[in-house]
UniProtKB/TrEMBL annotation:
One of its GO terms (molecular function) is DNA (cytosine-5-)-methyltransferase activity. It comes from Lunatimonas lonarensis. Its EC number is 2.1.1.37. InterPro entries: C5-Methyltransferase, C5_DNA_meth_AS, C5_MeTfrase, C5_meth_CS, DNA-bd_dom_put_sf, MerR-type_HTH_dom, SAM-dependent_MTases_sf. Residues 4-51 form the HTH merR-type domain. The active site is at residue 146. SUPFAM superfamilies: Putative DNA-binding domain, S-adenosyl-L-methionine-dependent methyltransferases. It is an enzyme of class 2 (transferase). This is Cytosine-specific methyltransferase.
Protein backbone atom coordinates (compact mmCIF):
# COMPACT_ATOMS: atom_id res chain seq x y z
CA UNK A 1 0.00 0.00 0.00
CA UNK A 2 1.20 3.51 -0.75
CA UNK A 3 2.95 4.89 2.34
CA UNK A 4 2.29 8.62 1.98
CA UNK A 5 -0.85 10.63 1.18
CA UNK A 6 -1.03 14.08 -0.37
CA UNK A 7 -2.83 16.94 1.41
CA UNK A 8 -5.94 16.45 -0.79
CA UNK A 9 -5.99 12.71 -0.26
CA UNK A 10 -5.61 12.98 3.51
CA UNK A 11 -8.28 15.70 3.63
CA UNK A 12 -10.77 13.61 1.61
CA UNK A 13 -10.13 10.44 3.59
CA UNK A 14 -10.62 12.05 6.98
CA UNK A 15 -13.39 14.34 5.75
CA UNK A 16 -11.72 17.52 7.06
CA UNK A 17 -10.74 20.57 5.03
CA UNK A 18 -7.19 21.17 3.87
CA UNK A 19 -7.11 24.24 6.10
CA UNK A 20 -7.94 22.08 9.14
CA UNK A 21 -5.14 19.71 8.20
CA UNK A 22 -2.68 22.60 7.88
CA UNK A 23 -3.77 23.85 11.30
CA UNK A 24 -3.33 20.40 12.78
CA UNK A 25 0.14 20.37 11.29
CA UNK A 26 0.93 23.66 13.06
CA UNK A 27 -0.55 22.29 16.29
CA UNK A 28 1.35 19.01 15.99
CA UNK A 29 -1.82 16.88 15.89
CA UNK A 30 -1.05 15.44 12.46
CA UNK A 31 2.42 16.29 11.22
CA UNK A 32 3.13 16.52 7.53
CA UNK A 33 6.51 15.90 5.98
CA UNK A 34 7.73 17.57 2.80
CA UNK A 35 8.00 15.59 -0.40
CA UNK A 36 11.68 16.18 -1.33
CA UNK A 37 11.18 16.91 -5.06
CA UNK A 38 8.06 19.09 -4.98
CA UNK A 39 8.25 20.33 -1.36
CA UNK A 40 4.50 19.55 -1.04
CA UNK A 41 3.08 18.42 2.30
CA UNK A 42 2.54 14.67 2.50
CA UNK A 43 1.18 12.63 5.38
CA UNK A 44 2.15 9.21 6.64
CA UNK A 45 -0.78 6.99 5.77
CA UNK A 46 -0.48 5.08 9.02
CA UNK A 47 -0.84 8.28 11.05
CA UNK A 48 -3.85 9.41 9.00
CA UNK A 49 -5.51 6.03 9.48
CA UNK A 50 -4.98 6.11 13.24
CA UNK A 51 -6.63 9.51 13.41
CA UNK A 52 -9.40 8.28 11.12
CA UNK A 53 -9.96 5.29 13.43
CA UNK A 54 -10.28 7.70 16.37
CA UNK A 55 -12.96 9.68 14.53
CA UNK A 56 -14.87 6.56 13.67
CA UNK A 57 -14.19 4.88 16.98
CA UNK A 58 -16.75 2.22 17.48
CA UNK A 59 -16.41 1.65 21.19
CA UNK A 60 -18.48 4.63 22.17
CA UNK A 61 -21.63 4.57 24.23
CA UNK A 62 -24.22 6.80 22.62
CA UNK A 63 -25.36 9.38 25.15
CA UNK A 64 -27.46 11.44 22.74
CA UNK A 65 -31.15 10.89 22.06
CA UNK A 66 -33.51 12.91 19.91
CA UNK A 67 -36.43 10.58 20.56
CA UNK A 68 -39.70 12.24 21.48
CA UNK A 69 -43.20 10.87 21.38
CA UNK A 70 -45.89 12.77 19.44
CA UNK A 71 -48.61 14.21 21.67
CA UNK A 72 -51.11 14.19 18.79
CA UNK A 73 -51.47 12.62 15.36
CA UNK A 74 -49.34 14.72 13.02
CA UNK A 75 -49.85 14.67 9.26
CA UNK A 76 -47.15 14.88 6.61
CA UNK A 77 -47.47 15.62 2.91
CA UNK A 78 -44.33 14.20 1.26
CA UNK A 79 -43.40 15.59 -2.17
CA UNK A 80 -40.78 14.05 -4.51
CA UNK A 81 -41.18 10.92 -2.39
CA UNK A 82 -39.00 8.53 -4.42
CA UNK A 83 -38.95 5.03 -2.91
CA UNK A 84 -39.85 6.43 0.48
CA UNK A 85 -36.56 6.84 2.38
CA UNK A 86 -37.67 10.06 4.07
CA UNK A 87 -41.30 8.91 4.32
CA UNK A 88 -40.39 5.69 6.16
CA UNK A 89 -38.02 7.63 8.41
CA UNK A 90 -40.76 10.12 9.30
CA UNK A 91 -43.21 7.28 9.85
CA UNK A 92 -40.75 5.67 12.30
CA UNK A 93 -40.70 8.96 14.19
CA UNK A 94 -44.49 8.73 14.55
CA UNK A 95 -45.66 11.06 11.75
CA UNK A 96 -48.50 10.03 9.48
CA UNK A 97 -48.18 10.38 5.69
CA UNK A 98 -51.49 11.68 4.37
CA UNK A 99 -50.29 11.69 0.76
CA UNK A 100 -47.10 11.32 -1.28
CA UNK A 101 -46.37 12.64 -4.75
CA UNK A 102 -43.85 11.08 -7.11
CA UNK A 103 -43.46 11.02 -10.89
CA UNK A 104 -41.45 7.82 -11.30
CA UNK A 105 -43.65 4.80 -12.00
CA UNK A 106 -41.35 2.27 -10.31
CA UNK A 107 -40.85 4.35 -7.20
CA UNK A 108 -44.66 4.71 -6.95
CA UNK A 109 -45.03 0.94 -7.25
CA UNK A 110 -42.50 0.53 -4.44
CA UNK A 111 -44.50 2.88 -2.21
CA UNK A 112 -47.81 1.12 -2.97
CA UNK A 113 -46.36 -2.35 -2.54
CA UNK A 114 -44.99 -1.62 0.93
CA UNK A 115 -47.76 0.66 2.18
CA UNK A 116 -51.01 -0.20 0.39
CA UNK A 117 -52.79 2.28 2.69
CA UNK A 118 -50.64 5.27 1.68
CA UNK A 119 -52.20 7.68 -0.78
CA UNK A 120 -49.67 7.75 -3.61
CA UNK A 121 -50.30 10.52 -6.13
CA UNK A 122 -48.45 9.38 -9.22
CA UNK A 123 -47.46 11.98 -11.79
CA UNK A 124 -45.82 15.34 -12.35
CA UNK A 125 -46.26 17.57 -9.31
CA UNK A 126 -47.32 20.46 -11.53
CA UNK A 127 -50.49 18.55 -12.46
CA UNK A 128 -51.72 18.26 -8.88
CA UNK A 129 -53.70 20.69 -6.83
CA UNK A 130 -53.16 20.36 -3.08
CA UNK A 131 -55.69 22.95 -1.90
CA UNK A 132 -57.87 20.25 -0.36
CA UNK A 133 -55.09 19.78 2.25
CA UNK A 134 -55.33 23.45 3.26
CA UNK A 135 -54.77 23.74 7.03
CA UNK A 136 -55.01 19.96 7.52
CA UNK A 137 -51.33 19.05 7.20
CA UNK A 138 -48.71 19.76 9.89
CA UNK A 139 -45.63 19.50 7.72
CA UNK A 140 -44.87 19.54 4.00
CA UNK A 141 -41.59 17.82 3.13
CA UNK A 142 -39.77 17.26 -0.12
CA UNK A 143 -36.41 16.73 -1.79
CA UNK A 144 -36.99 18.90 -4.87
CA UNK A 145 -34.33 18.28 -7.54
CA UNK A 146 -32.04 21.31 -7.78
CA UNK A 147 -32.37 23.50 -10.89
CA UNK A 148 -30.81 26.81 -11.79
CA UNK A 149 -32.91 29.96 -11.68
CA UNK A 150 -32.30 32.66 -14.22
CA UNK A 151 -31.38 35.50 -11.97
CA UNK A 152 -31.75 39.12 -12.88
CA UNK A 153 -29.87 40.45 -9.85
CA UNK A 154 -33.00 41.49 -7.93
CA UNK A 155 -34.65 39.75 -5.03
CA UNK A 156 -36.29 36.61 -6.40
CA UNK A 157 -40.02 36.15 -6.04
CA UNK A 158 -42.13 33.04 -6.53
CA UNK A 159 -43.37 34.17 -9.95
CA UNK A 160 -39.76 34.46 -11.18
CA UNK A 161 -39.07 30.75 -10.75
CA UNK A 162 -42.20 29.36 -12.40
CA UNK A 163 -41.38 26.15 -14.27
CA UNK A 164 -38.85 24.90 -11.70
CA UNK A 165 -39.47 22.16 -9.17
CA UNK A 166 -38.69 24.51 -6.29
CA UNK A 167 -41.56 26.67 -7.58
CA UNK A 168 -43.81 23.62 -7.28
CA UNK A 169 -42.58 22.93 -3.73
CA UNK A 170 -43.29 26.53 -2.72
CA UNK A 171 -46.64 26.54 -4.52
CA UNK A 172 -47.75 23.46 -2.59
CA UNK A 173 -46.63 25.06 0.67
CA UNK A 174 -48.81 28.11 -0.08
CA UNK A 175 -51.76 25.87 -0.95
CA UNK A 176 -51.43 23.75 2.18
CA UNK A 177 -50.27 26.45 4.66
CA UNK A 178 -48.55 24.06 7.13
CA UNK A 179 -46.90 25.40 10.32
CA UNK A 180 -43.55 24.07 9.08
CA UNK A 181 -42.06 22.94 5.78
CA UNK A 182 -38.84 21.03 5.18
CA UNK A 183 -36.89 20.79 1.96
CA UNK A 184 -33.93 18.49 1.58
CA UNK A 185 -31.18 18.65 -0.97
CA UNK A 186 -27.54 17.94 -1.72
CA UNK A 187 -24.70 19.93 -0.13
CA UNK A 188 -23.96 21.32 -3.60
CA UNK A 189 -26.99 23.60 -3.28
CA UNK A 190 -24.88 25.78 -0.94
CA UNK A 191 -22.52 26.69 -3.76
CA UNK A 192 -24.94 26.31 -6.71
CA UNK A 193 -24.64 29.47 -8.83
CA UNK A 194 -22.34 30.93 -6.14
CA UNK A 195 -24.99 30.51 -3.47
CA UNK A 196 -27.58 32.54 -5.40
CA UNK A 197 -29.92 29.58 -5.95
CA UNK A 198 -30.18 28.96 -2.20
CA UNK A 199 -30.54 32.68 -1.46
CA UNK A 200 -33.35 32.81 -4.03
CA UNK A 201 -35.13 29.91 -2.34
CA UNK A 202 -34.83 31.60 1.04
CA UNK A 203 -36.23 34.87 -0.30
CA UNK A 204 -39.13 33.06 -1.94
CA UNK A 205 -40.01 31.23 1.27
CA UNK A 206 -39.88 34.58 3.01
CA UNK A 207 -42.23 36.05 0.41
CA UNK A 208 -44.78 33.26 0.88
CA UNK A 209 -44.78 33.75 4.65
CA UNK A 210 -42.08 31.46 6.05
CA UNK A 211 -38.96 32.33 8.06
CA UNK A 212 -36.07 30.09 7.08
CA UNK A 213 -34.02 28.63 9.92
CA UNK A 214 -30.22 28.95 9.29
CA UNK A 215 -29.51 26.22 6.77
CA UNK A 216 -27.52 23.19 7.94
CA UNK A 217 -25.91 20.27 6.17
CA UNK A 218 -26.45 17.16 8.28
CA UNK A 219 -23.90 14.36 8.10
CA UNK A 220 -25.73 11.05 7.99
CA UNK A 221 -22.93 9.33 9.98
CA UNK A 222 -24.01 11.41 12.98
CA UNK A 223 -27.56 10.07 12.73
CA UNK A 224 -27.14 6.29 12.96
CA UNK A 225 -26.38 5.81 9.28
CA UNK A 226 -23.29 3.77 8.31
CA UNK A 227 -22.59 6.01 5.31
CA UNK A 228 -20.78 9.32 4.79
CA UNK A 229 -23.73 10.95 3.05
CA UNK A 230 -24.72 14.55 3.63
CA UNK A 231 -28.08 16.26 3.23
CA UNK A 232 -28.81 19.96 3.24
CA UNK A 233 -31.96 20.75 5.21
CA UNK A 234 -34.03 23.84 4.51
CA UNK A 235 -36.60 24.51 7.22
CA UNK A 236 -39.30 27.15 6.94
CA UNK A 237 -41.47 28.11 9.91
CA UNK A 238 -44.72 29.99 9.24
CA UNK A 239 -44.29 33.60 10.26
CA UNK A 240 -47.16 33.72 12.75
CA UNK A 241 -45.34 31.09 14.86
CA UNK A 242 -42.72 32.30 17.30
CA UNK A 243 -41.27 28.94 18.25
CA UNK A 244 -37.69 28.04 17.47
CA UNK A 245 -37.05 24.93 15.39
CA UNK A 246 -34.00 22.94 16.52
CA UNK A 247 -32.11 20.49 14.34
CA UNK A 248 -31.66 16.98 15.72
CA UNK A 249 -28.53 16.68 17.85
CA UNK A 250 -25.70 14.64 16.34
CA UNK A 251 -25.06 11.28 17.99
CA UNK A 252 -21.58 10.43 19.20
CA UNK A 253 -21.64 6.80 18.07
CA UNK A 254 -20.65 6.22 14.47
CA UNK A 255 -21.67 3.05 12.67
CA UNK A 256 -19.61 1.29 10.02
CA UNK A 257 -20.06 -1.15 7.16
CA UNK A 258 -19.94 -4.14 9.49
CA UNK A 259 -22.91 -2.72 11.39
CA UNK A 260 -24.77 -2.34 8.10
CA UNK A 261 -24.18 -5.82 6.73
CA UNK A 262 -23.75 -8.03 9.77
CA UNK A 263 -25.83 -8.86 12.80
CA UNK A 264 -25.30 -6.22 15.48
CA UNK A 265 -26.79 -3.04 16.89
CA UNK A 266 -28.38 -1.81 13.67
CA UNK A 267 -29.81 -5.13 12.41
CA UNK A 268 -30.46 -8.35 14.27
CA UNK A 269 -29.50 -10.62 11.33
CA UNK A 270 -26.85 -10.67 8.62
CA UNK A 271 -27.89 -8.97 5.36
CA UNK A 272 -30.28 -11.17 3.31
CA UNK A 273 -29.02 -12.56 0.00
CA UNK A 274 -30.17 -10.67 -3.10
CA UNK A 275 -29.21 -9.99 -6.71
CA UNK A 276 -26.49 -7.48 -7.40
CA UNK A 277 -24.63 -5.77 -10.23
CA UNK A 278 -21.25 -7.06 -11.37
CA UNK A 279 -18.12 -5.28 -12.53
CA UNK A 280 -16.98 -5.94 -16.09
CA UNK A 281 -14.03 -8.38 -16.09
CA UNK A 282 -11.47 -5.64 -16.85
CA UNK A 283 -12.62 -3.54 -13.89
CA UNK A 284 -12.71 -6.59 -11.64
CA UNK A 285 -9.09 -7.39 -12.47
CA UNK A 286 -8.09 -3.85 -11.48
CA UNK A 287 -10.16 -3.78 -8.27
CA UNK A 288 -8.76 -7.17 -7.25
CA UNK A 289 -5.49 -5.30 -6.64
CA UNK A 290 -7.02 -2.73 -4.27
CA UNK A 291 -6.90 -3.56 -0.53
CA UNK A 292 -9.64 -2.68 2.00
CA UNK A 293 -9.81 1.11 2.47
CA UNK A 294 -7.55 1.46 -0.56
CA UNK A 295 -8.26 3.25 -3.85
CA UNK A 296 -6.70 3.91 -7.27
CA UNK A 297 -3.41 5.15 -5.81
CA UNK A 298 -2.78 1.66 -4.46
CA UNK A 299 -2.54 0.28 -7.99
CA UNK A 300 0.75 -0.14 -9.89
CA UNK A 301 1.56 3.12 -11.71
CA UNK A 302 0.89 1.81 -15.23
CA UNK A 303 -2.52 0.50 -14.17
CA UNK A 304 -3.30 3.77 -12.37
CA UNK A 305 -2.68 5.66 -15.60
CA UNK A 306 -4.75 3.31 -17.70
CA UNK A 307 -7.65 3.17 -15.22
CA UNK A 308 -7.81 6.91 -14.58
CA UNK A 309 -7.34 8.01 -18.18
CA UNK A 310 -7.58 11.81 -18.43
CA UNK A 311 -8.29 12.18 -14.68
CA UNK A 312 -4.82 10.90 -13.81
CA UNK A 313 -3.21 14.32 -14.16
CA UNK A 314 -6.08 16.36 -12.67
CA UNK A 315 -5.75 17.72 -9.15
CA UNK A 316 -7.57 16.61 -6.01
CA UNK A 317 -7.31 13.40 -4.05
CA UNK A 318 -10.12 11.60 -5.91
CA UNK A 319 -10.12 9.06 -3.11
CA UNK A 320 -13.58 7.82 -4.14
CA UNK A 321 -12.31 6.25 -7.35
CA UNK A 322 -11.65 2.48 -7.39
CA UNK A 323 -12.38 2.48 -3.66
CA UNK A 324 -12.72 -0.70 -1.65
CA UNK A 325 -14.64 -0.03 1.55
CA UNK A 326 -13.27 -1.38 4.86
CA UNK A 327 -15.49 -3.19 7.37
CA UNK A 328 -14.54 -0.75 10.12
CA UNK A 329 -15.47 2.49 8.33
CA UNK A 330 -18.75 4.02 7.17
CA UNK A 331 -19.41 3.49 3.47
CA UNK A 332 -18.81 6.33 1.02
CA UNK A 333 -21.97 7.95 -0.41
CA UNK A 334 -23.86 5.47 -2.54
CA UNK A 335 -24.70 6.60 -6.06
CA UNK A 336 -27.69 5.68 -8.21
CA UNK A 337 -25.73 3.11 -10.15
CA UNK A 338 -23.24 0.86 -8.33
CA UNK A 339 -20.92 -0.05 -11.20
CA UNK A 340 -20.72 3.50 -12.55
CA UNK A 341 -17.30 4.73 -13.70
CA UNK A 342 -15.06 6.45 -11.17
CA UNK A 343 -17.35 6.06 -8.15
CA UNK A 344 -16.61 2.42 -7.37
CA UNK A 345 -17.43 1.33 -3.83
CA UNK A 346 -16.25 -2.27 -3.80
CA UNK A 347 -17.28 -4.87 -1.21
CA UNK A 348 -14.50 -5.32 1.42
CA UNK A 349 -13.76 -8.97 0.69
CA UNK A 350 -15.32 -9.84 -2.64
CA UNK A 351 -14.54 -7.89 -5.78
CA UNK A 352 -18.07 -6.76 -6.63
CA UNK A 353 -20.43 -3.83 -6.01
CA UNK A 354 -22.85 -4.06 -3.09
CA UNK A 355 -26.00 -6.07 -3.79
CA UNK A 356 -29.46 -4.46 -3.76
CA UNK A 357 -30.13 -5.50 -0.15
CA UNK A 358 -26.66 -4.38 0.94
CA UNK A 359 -27.36 -1.01 -0.69
CA UNK A 360 -30.67 -0.81 1.14
CA UNK A 361 -28.98 -1.59 4.47
CA UNK A 362 -26.32 1.09 3.95
CA UNK A 363 -29.24 3.49 3.49
CA UNK A 364 -30.81 1.96 6.66
CA UNK A 365 -33.98 0.71 4.95
CA UNK A 366 -35.64 -2.18 6.79
CA UNK A 367 -34.99 -5.61 5.19
CA UNK A 368 -38.69 -6.04 4.45
CA UNK A 369 -38.92 -2.83 2.39
CA UNK A 370 -39.33 -4.19 -1.16
CA UNK A 371 -38.12 -2.26 -4.23
CA UNK A 372 -40.02 -2.64 -7.50
CA UNK A 373 -38.69 -2.55 -11.06
CA UNK A 374 -35.53 -3.84 -12.70
CA UNK A 375 -32.32 -4.15 -10.70
CA UNK A 376 -31.13 -0.82 -12.17
CA UNK A 377 -34.42 0.83 -11.09
CA UNK A 378 -34.04 -0.59 -7.60
CA UNK A 379 -30.48 0.71 -7.20
CA UNK A 380 -31.63 4.10 -8.47
CA UNK A 381 -34.47 4.33 -5.96
CA UNK A 382 -32.17 3.37 -3.09
CA UNK A 383 -29.33 5.64 -4.22
CA UNK A 384 -31.73 8.61 -4.46
CA UNK A 385 -33.17 8.18 -0.98
CA UNK A 386 -32.69 10.08 2.23
CA UNK A 387 -31.26 7.46 4.62
CA UNK A 388 -34.18 6.20 6.69
CA UNK A 389 -32.47 6.74 10.05
CA UNK A 390 -31.61 10.33 9.14
CA UNK A 391 -35.28 10.80 8.19
CA UNK A 392 -36.32 9.46 11.59
CA UNK A 393 -34.04 11.85 13.47
CA UNK A 394 -35.33 14.80 11.41
CA UNK A 395 -38.81 13.43 12.15
CA UNK A 396 -38.16 13.64 15.92
CA UNK A 397 -37.15 17.28 15.51
CA UNK A 398 -40.46 17.97 13.72
CA UNK A 399 -42.46 16.13 16.40
CA UNK A 400 -40.69 18.14 19.10
CA UNK A 401 -41.56 21.38 17.27
CA UNK A 402 -45.21 20.39 16.77
CA UNK A 403 -45.62 19.19 20.38
CA UNK A 404 -44.43 22.60 21.55
CA UNK A 405 -46.59 24.43 19.03
CA UNK A 406 -49.81 22.70 20.01
CA UNK A 407 -49.12 22.87 23.74
CA UNK A 408 -48.71 26.67 23.44
CA UNK A 409 -51.90 26.97 21.38
CA UNK A 410 -54.12 24.91 23.66
C1 LIG B 1 -33.94 12.90 -4.42
S1 LIG B 1 -35.30 12.00 -4.95
C2 LIG B 1 -36.27 11.94 -3.50
C3 LIG B 1 -35.94 10.84 -2.56
C4 LIG B 1 -36.92 10.63 -1.46
N1 LIG B 1 -37.11 11.81 -0.65
C5 LIG B 1 -36.46 9.48 -0.58
O1 LIG B 1 -36.07 9.73 0.55
O2 LIG B 1 -36.49 8.31 -1.03
C6 LIG B 1 -36.22 13.11 -5.94
C7 LIG B 1 -37.46 12.53 -6.55
O3 LIG B 1 -38.18 13.54 -7.24
C8 LIG B 1 -38.89 12.91 -8.28
N2 LIG B 1 -39.36 13.92 -9.26
C9 LIG B 1 -38.61 14.56 -10.18
N3 LIG B 1 -39.37 15.39 -10.91
C10 LIG B 1 -40.64 15.29 -10.43
C11 LIG B 1 -41.88 15.90 -10.78
N4 LIG B 1 -41.95 16.78 -11.78
N5 LIG B 1 -42.98 15.55 -10.09
C12 LIG B 1 -42.92 14.65 -9.09
N6 LIG B 1 -41.77 14.02 -8.71
C13 LIG B 1 -40.64 14.34 -9.37
C14 LIG B 1 -37.87 11.93 -8.84
O4 LIG B 1 -38.50 10.90 -9.60
C15 LIG B 1 -37.18 11.43 -7.57
O5 LIG B 1 -37.74 10.23 -7.13
Amino acid sequence: MKEYLSLSEASELIGKSKETLRRWDREGKLSAVREPMSNYRVYKREQVETLFADFFSHDVVDTVSNYVEPNNEYNVLELFAGAGGLAVGLEKAGLKCVALNEIDKWACQTLRKNRPNWKVLEGDIKDFDFKKYHNSVDVVTGGFPCQAFSYAGKKLGLADVRGTLFYEFARVVTEVNPPICIGENVRGLLSHDNGKTLQGMISILDEIGYNVVPVQVLKAINYKVPQKRERLILVGVRKDIELKYEYPKPHNKIYNLKDALQKGELYDTNVPKSPGAKYPQSKKEVLDLVPQKGYWRDLPLDIQKEFMGGSFHLGGGKTGIARRIGWDEPCLTLTCSPAQKQTERCHPEETRPFTVREYARIQTFPDDWVFEGSMAQQYKQIGNAVPVNLGTEVGYSIVKFLNQLYSVRK
